[in-house]
Amino acid sequence: MEKVDIEGNIVDKNTFMMLIRDKTGQIFFRYRKKFMPREEWEKLRYDLEIGDNVKITNCDAVNWQGILQLKLANQGNVIQIS
User: Quick one: pLDDT at residue 40?
Assistant: First the structure.
């Protein structure tokens, strides 16, 4: 599935993945440095923290080893919501 948008709360994160919780449950969100400019990747790594609310747009839903995940597409975007 392509062009998935989600709004939620960051529950956990590491260098390449976040766990996002919304009113329907939790989902893993993967992002990779090669798909985005360095400034955006560093923003995801350092500026966003656990507990922040985010809006993620233009993701692809993928199934990896039976786990549904969202993967940031080339034109994808992550926006912090206050």
Answer: 75
